[in-house]
Amino acid sequence: MWLRLSKIALVASIALTCSLVALGNIVDPNLNLAFLQHVLSMDTISPDPSVRNRAIINPELQWFAFILIVLGETLAALLLWLGAIQMLRHLTAAGPRFARAKTPAIVGLSIGFMIWQGGFLGIGGEWFGMWMSKTWNGQESAFRFAMMMLGVLVYLVIPD
Question: Smallest Cα–Cα separation from 99: which of 157, 151, 13?
Answer without folding.
Answer: 157
